[in-house]
């Protein structure tokens, strides 16, 4: 899936916020932004409706095009290999569990100031 949007951003700080907001979605393959034309190109396996809704909450956003991504034959095989590697990694190396220790509450002895 390839999505091309026109997002009204005025500086690099806003650009980084847009990129951070979009990169949080699952299935995003690549993000590119042309500041001169104010075009954001998102590709990968994602839901374009969710991406556009997220951006429209904070920035004026227009959809320029939505469609399948054009891929070369060599890149398809390479992308599939990368996906297989990522799946294998996620299968065998799950995120570590975090345990928190909360010490028992101990009442301090009464202090009397004379």
TrEMBL record:
Residues 1-67 form the HMA domain. Keywords: Lipoprotein, Metal-binding, Methylation, Prenylation. InterPro entries: HIPP (IPR051863), HMA_dom (IPR006121), HMA_dom_sf (IPR036163). Pfam families: HMA (PF00403). Signal peptide: none annotated. Transmembrane segments: none annotated. The keyword Metal-binding applies. The keyword Metal-binding applies. Gene3D superfamilies: 3.30.70.100. Belongs to the HIPP family. PANTHER family: COPPER TRANSPORT PROTEIN FAMILY-RELATED (PTHR45811), HEAVY METAL-ASSOCIATED ISOPRENYLATED PLANT PROTEIN 12-RELATED (PTHR45811:SF50). This is Heavy metal-associated isoprenylated plant protein 39-like isoform X4. It comes from Rhodamnia argentea.
């Amino acid at each position: 899936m390839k999505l091309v949007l026109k997002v009204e951003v005025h500086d690099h700080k806003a650009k980084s916020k847009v990129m951070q907001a979009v990169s949080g979605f699952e299935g995003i393959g690549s993000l590119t932004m042309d500041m001169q034309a104010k075009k954001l190109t998102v590709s990968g396996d994602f839901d374009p409706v969710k991406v556009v809704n997220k951006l429209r909450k904070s920035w004026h956003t227009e959809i320029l095009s939505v469609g399948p991504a054009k891929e070369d034959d060599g890149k398809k095989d390479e992308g599939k290999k990368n996906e297989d590697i990522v799946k294998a990694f996620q299968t065998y190396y799950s995120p570590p569990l975090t345990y928190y220790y909360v010490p028992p509450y101990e009442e301090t002895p009464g202090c009397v100031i004379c």
